[in-house]
Amino acid sequence: MGLGHRAMIAAVLAGTVAVGLAGCGGGGGSEQGDGKPSASAGKSGKPASSAGAPSASNTSAPVLAQIKGAQDIAVTINSAVRDEGGFVTVQGTLTNNGSDTFDADSWRGNETGLVASGASAAGAVLVDEAGKKRYYVLRDTDGKCLCTMGLTGVKPEESRPFFAQFPSPPPTTTQVEFELPTMPPAKITISEG
């Protein structure tokens, strides 16, 4: 196994831990205070964000879309899964194909409420063109996104897994556009979890 392959496995494992920790952020059930169900748990009580999480053994994940942006940053989207709790979790991999270290500060978006999320995928949006609606990344009770945070210091040739969780469009909507600030949009298909 080459050094690059080991680095990718380490990045996937680190991202899986980050997904689990992000899903646990903010209080639980009755402490939400806003009357909304917790986006971090589906009906089964398991974190919705861990469903289909990348694993070291799943190196040949399907590719729904690939987008390339400035600084030779590439995003590969491997899944967009609707769960029974009414959420869609988009997962994939960020790869720095450039020669400079990458920080995803601009991916957080411009909304002041998302400053606490730091360099993250908090600015991601799902667009239902047919239904003429935009779905923004969900937040925990502390206002942090239910998405990958800490996307800083991504070195050249490094890949990191990412996820973002959204409210679900209607069940009849299966085609949406995934948008991430500074990156071109990508059409993806939502599958049932």
TrEMBL record:
Chain intervals with Low complexity compositional bias: 35-57
Ranges for region Disordered: 27-58
Domain of life, source organism: Bacteria
Keywords of the record: Signal
Signal peptide location: 1-22
Keyword Signal: yes
Protein name: Secreted protein
Organism name: Actinacidiphila cocklensis
Upper classification of the organism: Bacteria, Bacillati, Actinomycetota, Actinomycetes, Kitasatosporales
